[in-house]
Automatic annotation (TrEMBL), chains A, B:
<dbReference type="InterPro" id="IPR036291">
    <property type="entry name" value="NAD(P)-bd_dom_sf"/>
</dbReference>
<dbReference type="InterPro" id="IPR001509">
    <property type="entry name" value="Epimerase_deHydtase"/>
</dbReference>
<dbReference type="GO" id="GO:0016491">
    <property type="term" value="F:oxidoreductase activity"/>
</dbReference>
<keyword id="KW-0119">Carbohydrate metabolism</keyword>
<dbReference type="Pfam" id="PF01370">
    <property type="entry name" value="Epimerase"/>
</dbReference>
<keyword id="KW-0521">NADP</keyword>
<protein>
    <submittedName>
        <fullName>NAD-dependent epimerase</fullName>
    </submittedName>
</protein>
<feature type="domain" description="NAD-dependent epimerase/dehydratase">
    <location>
        <begin position="3"/>
        <end position="238"/>
    </location>
</feature>
<dbReference type="InterPro" id="IPR050005">
    <property type="entry name" value="DenD"/>
</dbReference>
Amino acid sequence: MKVLVIGAAGMVGRKLVAELLATGRVGEQTITSLALADVVIPVAPETSIPVASLAVDLSVPEVAAQLVADRPDLIFHLAAIVSGEAEADFEKGYSINLDGTRHLLEACRLAGRASSYCPRLVFTSSIAVFGEPLPAVIGDTHEHTPLTSYGTQKAICELLLADYSRRGFVDGIGIRLPTIAVRPGGPNKAASGFFSGIIREPLAGQEALLPVADAVRHWFASPRAAVGFLLHAAALDTGQLGNQRNLTMPGLAATVGEQIAALERVAGPKAVALIRRHPDETIAGIVAGWPQAFEATLAKSLGFVGESSFDEIIRIYIEDELGGQIS
Amino acid sequence: MKVLVIGAAGMVGRKLVAELLATGRVGEQTITSLALADVVIPVAPETSIPVASLAVDLSVPEVAAQLVADRPDLIFHLAAIVSGEAEADFEKGYSINLDGTRHLLEACRLAGRASSYCPRLVFTSSIAVFGEPLPAVIGDTHEHTPLTSYGTQKAICELLLADYSRRGFVDGIGIRLPTIAVRPGGPNKAASGFFSGIIREPLAGQEALLPVADAVRHWFASPRAAVGFLLHAAALDTGQLGNQRNLTMPGLAATVGEQIAALERVAGPKAVALIRRHPDETIAGIVAGWPQAFEATLAKSLGFVGESSFDEIIRIYIEDELGGQIS
């Protein structure tokens, strides 16, 4: 099968590509070619599978048609500008996160006019589609009232994905990713950055700032689980989905206090001592509006699997990013 | 205040315009001018209020800017192509129902760049935003999984309306209208047409076909109630809405059997005898996927009022369309 990954240079994109090339397959099917697209040229590991890398701007209408000209059987669409940037630049957010996705859907629909075409399209949505009012545990049929333009754009793309699937233009599945932790790399300015930072920095022997209270509860999956969700979605029998083309992925609900206790179990009190409480009302205010936990009943029943403890999430980080060793 | 009505030539639009001109006010505010737009030139009653009538195509990007150039304080946006047409013509549906609304929102946002501008925007959405799986009574926080492109387009516009309101570009409120009955005019080809036809035709001494079982239950409001919802939304303190900019309007849940019983009470057995049962599996199948009843708790708490019996809905039809008399 021919596979296209849009957003291949991002953190999850790179891990997905590495996994696709390592196994050479998706479900029962062998990958015959892989096309990678992003705003910067994605770099792929050496492999026997033919790989094409492209730097593209999906907000330019013609680009999507070029991407699907080769008629990929499977498309992963991970490309988006992040929440903070979509909030700061209203037009850019709508242009890339909404119009870019719509161009892709339209390119698939129009390609199907020439001759039959209906690719599997795996789209990464987000729990940012949920907003106030929120129950403590959010069910699979809860409404979407996003509190950000990013969440609005993701919610709209979910609706488009479902309608284009219902009409037979794509065979779509949208997966709402939990907050990904532990993210590799350095500290960033995302409001959610500390959820990874309070684990990652202490494991590297560095101090980490904690801007919120220990009681703050949130919803997590590891980067490895995220790649697993994408691959499972790619091979799933979508006939099981009915009209529910968009699914909340299973995650782990954990408080900051539970994160810290897990860090102590995995890396000892020396690591925990590097976490410095530094309350930040702005960040605390933003995080207070975020979802805390989900039922994710449907996704679990379809075989999507997340982590069952924050210890596991930390161990995955140590295995995948630190070569299995901590200092 | 300056008022703009887009979609002024439709059934609800005409009744809204008649009411605006009859009272000359919206809430506490006096109407100083009224602009009416539709794909055909809307006709307005004689009045002392200056009225401008325009034939426009909202799917043309520049049109929305022309409509808001006069900076109306209040915009009613009722324009849409109907469900059946949006399903038959995919591109036209998205072009008018989605892009048309987005052009209007963008025009308001861009007008606000020159100098402060944030009009009240009352948008008519639809219970078509709801789809499977559906509980028997749908709560205010139930998800939107529309089963039609029309429902998808309305659900997307709701999300845009909420985000543009959150950003301060418009002061939006979306109202999900129940199925409007009793519609004046002749029989039409809408799958929902019989809900009005089995009342309207017998009241005119004509036979009406009933394609579904008496047990079929649906959600109704009169045209008079719909106009009431629009006017109430126009004058509402939107500070009460929080992040819930889109509301399911209160309606009346009634089975076809209850409709017929109401007709008998209002117009006697002679009228009921004109209903001929003529099962149509296609229509029965479509209607089976439709919502049956809603809680509408939030809208009721905000003062929106629907009907409390189908007898009342029939009497409103007789008063407003038949001059208060039946043959």
